[in-house]
Amino acid sequence: MIRNYRDLTRLEMEQVNREETIVLIPLGALEQHGNQAPLGTDDIIAEAMTRYLKKELEAQDPDFPMLIFPVIPVGLSTEHKNFCGSITFKPATYYHMLYDICASLAHHGFRKIALLVCHGGNAPVAQILSRELRSELGISPFILSSGAFSHPDVTATISPGNVWDFHGGEMETSMVMAVDPSLVKLETSEAGIPTAFKDNKALKPYGSVSIGWVSEDWKTTDGKPIGIGGDPSGASAEKGRIILETSAKVLVPGLMEIRDWTP
Asked: Whose CA is closest to 244, among 68, 54, 37, 45?
């Protein structure tokens, strides 16, 4: 049975099979997503992903053993800190905060923790944390990526010519619109491109040869730092529904194997 961690009483929690139950911890962020999308985009996506995952998992296993932890609303957003509204932990602060949460869960007997990464900047800390927790506490911390952005059904939602779609772009904006279109102001949107990288053959803001990009690297065609990738103007709620649904479906086989995982 999939339930919200915070909804259980202490007595109900004592009755949970904590050896087998997966605690899903959605890792969000509070940071700029351009002119058009809310600062809480990643948190909104994280909450939506838990609902889509619950639906997909229960369709295959009505008794799927999982507790959904509250979304962690602030993450590692160093790359966005110079844009108004963005909030970030220091890497060490973020690591230790997540470590303490996982250590508390382990103290109560939970052995399987799944970190649902809903902001790419959180991923490096999640990777380090997973290995350290396995080594030090002997638990199994798994890492899930919340967006199936390379899946053909997802890439098909990107408007023709929108070649740089990335953070705060058409896909993420669409995902928010699928949850609450009133939060998106498409009329104020502007497109962003990585000006310093766009003509490079090898050195890119991501890939096999890269540098830790910052929001200022993504600019409008007239050179104004905008902090997002691609053109959000083609976003729609229907596109967002496709992205969320596809992303959840992609994660289900892995979660089924986590359910059956025996270290």
From this structure: 45
**Overall pTM > 0.85:** yes
Mean pLDDT of 191-209: 92
Question: Do residue 88 and residue 167 come from a single domain?
Answer: no
Sign (positive/negative) of CA torsion 147, 149, 155, 159?
A: positive
HEC secondary structure over 94-143: HHHHHHHHHHHHHHCCCCEEEEEECCHHHHHHHHHHHHHHHHHHCCEEEE
Confidence of residue 214 (pLDDT cuts 50, 70, 90): very high
Packing angle, helices 170-179 and 237-259, rounded to 10 = 90
Q: Which string of DSSP letters, residue by residue, matches 152-199?
A: HHHHTTSPTT-TT--TTSHHHHHHHHHH-GGG--GGG---BEETTTTT
Number of domains in the chain: 2
Residue 53's pLDDT band (boundaries 50, 70, 90)?
very high
Phi, psi of 65 (to 5 degrees): -85, 90
* The predicted structure's pLDDT at residue 112: 98
Contact 118, 45 (CB under 8 A): yes
Domain that holds residue 83: 2-150+245-259
Integer Cα distance of 109 and 88 in angstroms: 31
Classify the phi-psi angles of 34: left when phi > 0, otherwise alpha if psi is within -120 to 50, otherwise beta.
left
Residues 169, 93: one domain? no
